[in-house]
Every structure is written in C-alpha cells, then in structure tokens.
Amino acid sequence: MYKIQNKLMMIFLVCFIFLLIPHMAYAWGPGVHTLISFNLLDELKAYGSFFYPVVSNNFWEFLYGSLAPDFMVAKKLVSKKNNSHNFDFAHNLIETAKSEKELSFALGYLSHLASDKIMHEVFLNDYNVVNSLEHMSLELLSDAYYANYLNVVSFVLKKRSRLDKPLKANLGLVINTFIGKNILRLSTRNVISSISKSIVLNNLKIDKSIVDSYIKASLKLSKEHIIKLN
Fold first, then answer.
1. Helix H segments across the chain?
2. What is the pLDDT of residues 42-88, one digit of tens each?
3. The domain containing residue 142 runs over which residues?
C-alpha cells in the first residue's frame, strides 16, 4: 500500500512541476548547491573566516540552508512581502539567529542566493536562455554532471528541522514549502535523475568544463558575501 501511495505522489509531483514551469525561476539545482557548499567550507577554512567554526560544527544546518531558498515554488506568484528568495530575508536570518545552528542555516541560505546570482545574471545571459523550459534544462544539465551529490541532498532533506520555520509565515507558505521540499526530494530519486541526465546530456551541448567555470564563479561570490560579514 505504501509503495502505491509513494508512486502516486511521484506522479502527482511530476505533473505539478510541469504545470509550474511557466512560473518558476530556475538557477542552480540542489546537486550543484551542495557541491558549492562543500567547496565553500574549504574556502572559509583557507581564508580563516570567523564563520568557519560555525559552519564546520553545524555543517548539516549549512547544507539545509543552502537548499532552503528553493523550498519556495512559483516565486513570481508570491507577494513581495511573503517572498523569502532575496538577500534582505537572508540577512535578517543572520541578524536574528539565536544559536550557531540557526546562524549556519542562515549562512547557507545566503550562499545559495549568491550562487544563484551568477546563474541568473551571467550564465543564462551568456547562453541567451530566455524561457523557463530552457532554464530547467540547463539546471538539470548542471546537476547531471554532479549527480553523486544528489545522494547527499536526499539525506539532508530526510532529516526533520524547524530551521525553515521563518519560511512558513502563513498557511499558504506552509503549503508552498511542503510542495517545494517534495519537488526537491523527487529530483533526487535515482529513476528521475537518471532520466533527466539522459535527456539533457543528449540534447544540451554545453561542456562540463564550461559549467565548472560558472560554478567556480558562484563559489567565489558566495565566499565574498560571507566574508563581507566578518
């Protein structure tokens, strides 16, 4: 019975994703954000950042924060007041953090937004990506190159946390966040990631070395945003 319910949930979510495509803003996928998070930890250590011990000792919270901005779906349809996918929201999380776990989560959240800035403003423009379907294809391609990190994403999302409570200001956002997290979970399923990898690698001709160069730029900007807080 459980397996049937699980399959029905997957079918529902796949259909829901395609209904949302015209309204979704895409950037890096969860696999790439996780890759950046691991590299960012090393960068903060090498730099001697004040925040390195916080992130190092609470790395699960950092990883969770680096995924959290994408818990919100259909961002363009959410009012400005309730839209948490922006730097003001991230800085408020940092300023109001009451523990190192909350601070690490907030820093991960900030790193996600900084990374997305490179994807939105540089990568997509360089390749003249103009519609949501192309956006999603580019996101899937990038994650396909780093599919092994999706196992980490799956593990992180399985753990329950109250750290994303600020994203749930009202019932509508509670539902929105629930849907967003399940879409991310779905994207980590082996069958889904294998199908998407096969499709995009056969149809998008962007070399991995090119994707890597934009990921490095995202890592650099994420580091700059965090050390600026020192």
1. 2-20, 30-47, 52-57, 59-67, 87-96, 100-118, 124-126, 132-145, 150-158, 171-187, 190-203, 208-227
2. 999 999 999 999 999 999 999 999 999 988 766 655 656 667 778 99
3. 2-227
